[in-house]
# Entry
Amino acid sequence: MTVGRVSVGFMPTVRYRRIAIELRVLREAAGFSVEQVAEMLNCDPADMVAIEECRRPIPPETLGYLLRYGYRVADEDYLEYLSGLAANGHRRDWTQMLVDGTPSYRRMDEALMRGAVGTWLYSPTAIPPILQVPEYRRELGGAPEEDPVTSPTHSVEVWVILGEAALYRRVGSAVTWAAQHGRLATLAESAHVDLRVLPLSAPVGARYPQEFSMVDFLTPEGDNGVVCLRSPSRVQFIDRSGEIGRYHAAFHQLAGEALDPDESLAKLRALA
# Structure
């Protein structure tokens, strides 16, 4: 089988990133080493490392072979989904419709977090899902999911700017609300969480009324990551460097007018 090589300066798309993360997860679940997979494909182990690190793409025909005969994937819909990503891997951006009953492997947002090393979250009016206690999530109709903030197997660095309004918009019972405030205070004390509260009086909040998040990855070097824009019906993923840069600039503007981490922690403790 062949493993494609790419030109210097290759920057991954959301689709290539998704495939890279999935291949690493599948290989580890199957108990294979990179060397064993490279032997299956008759390629250099360094090529497989580059694919899993999203420094080069895998050709669709090689992907299909590896999934079917290497990792023994039998779900035809799953195979078709990943093959479609590979066939259109060069295309920029991605939109995921939020439909009840969507299989977990079609949840691009959850998959990207499995490969992330850091995430930036701006939420002006609600607690972001990865910071919610289970009771809060159930009140909003959300399904249980892995906690990437405190998971013992995969944790990420988290930077959060939380609108002050989110702290007063009660969800669920008094017990649930107290538990949610307690979790926020606990997370704010964590070494890998930077949580800042944006006061209602901060003018910059009116400039950015919609939530957004950014996901960062270890490789390839120089990659700007992915921006995620969530609405009630869909999540849009942006992987164009210029647009991502504008969201980074917006986040820094918001951080500049937010309370510092110590002031934010004091406010959270007072509510817990």
Remarks:
- The first strand starts at residue 94 and ends at 97.
- The chain has a mean pLDDT of 89.
- The beta strands are 94-97, 118-123, 157-163, 193-198, 212-216, 226-230, 234-238.
- The chain has two domains: 14-87, 94-271.
